[in-house]
Amino acid sequence: MEGLDRKWIRRxxxxxxxxxxxxxxxxxxxxxxxxxxxxxxxxxxxxxxxxHRFKEGKARTIPGRMRIDAFRRQxxxxxxxxxxxxxxxxxxxxxxxRRFGRPTVVITIDDGFRDNYDLAFPALAxxxxxxxxFLTSGFIGTEKxxxxxxxxxxxxxxxxxxxxxxxxxxxxxxxxxxxxxKARASHALYKALLEVEDEERRRYVARLLETLxxxxxxxxxxxxxxxxxxxxxxxxxxxxxxxxxxVSHPILSRMRxxxxxREILDSKETIEERLGREVRHFAVPNxxxxxxxxxxxxxxxESGFRSVATTNSxxxxxxxxxxxxxxICPPESVSLFAFDLARQMFLG
Length: 348
What we know:
This protein is an alpha/beta fold. It folds into two domains: 2-142 and 224-346, Glycoside hydrolase/deacetylase (TIM Barrel), CATH 3.20.20; 147-212. The protein has helices spanning 2-26, 29-40, 68-81, 87-95, 115-127, 147-157, 166-169, 179-193, 198-212, 229-237, 257-275, 294-302, 334-346, and strands at residues 46-51, 53-55, 65-67, 83-85, 104-111, 131-135, 162-164, 173-175, 240-244, 281-283, 307-309. Strands 1, 4, 5, 6 and 9 form a five-stranded parallel beta sheet that branches. The chain has a two-stranded parallel ribbon with strand order 2-3. Strand 5 (104-111), helix 5 and strand 6 form a beta-alpha-beta unit. Helix 6 (147-157) packs antiparallel against helix 8, helix 6 (147-157) packs parallel to helix 9 and helix 11 packs parallel to helix 12. The chain is globular, with a radius of gyration of 21 Å. The two termini are 32 Å apart. The model has no long low-confidence stretch (mean pLDDT 90).
């Protein structure tokens, strides 16, 4: 009974949070609180945000893409209440063990999708905000995408109604009958594939793609989803910096150490050669503690990286290890975004 009560309490809190956030945000009370607290203190942590993909309009797709109008509203909120600085400046502050005189945010984007240039870059340029995009270098300028997105697109396009893969999923059969169920199936496949070794994951992905393409819904021709080097150079000349995110987006902890090191170093060297600038920052694919290792962290430091970004949630304090940099993935709702960011900044 006690366990049931806790479950209901968690459910109530989860449902109440968006309502409370909306009330505080649209009433102006949240902005007022940020303004007042910002003047009362002169020492703040920083928060590193990370995004992935963007889309126009409200078309229903498998999750993972933020509406660009929502992104613009988030940037507008940041411009009103927060300082937005570069990742380079953040790392310099960490090294000096200095906090910030105002609430401070860093913007990062993972993978290097084409919509980063078409949609996110104009929004960032309009606010004159710096940002760092972590590139999966082997896919830049090609029709290839990271394996996670390859599976998501294949699931979305397939005409199959159900999917079974006993070697990976056991007795579980995935329902593909609606877009919502396809989204859940994509996530289930992703979670299962995180736990297998790299070579085995590649075999599973190849088999999955072959199975899903046996029957498609005629969704259309393949297009270039990733950035081109010309687009990257254009952004780099106008205030956007670039970091490394491996060559092929593997789970590094599931590879042989030498192969994982090569994924990291080749990505760094390719970007440096293409841009003629030093690559100082690395983001771990998937980004959990289980996806990296102390040996790879030491390798990054020895290779000249000044930070390693994770997906571990948290704010950046002066004493944080820059090779274990926490980041926060924002919700699409601007009121939830503003609420969660203020909570991280002022409450921790």
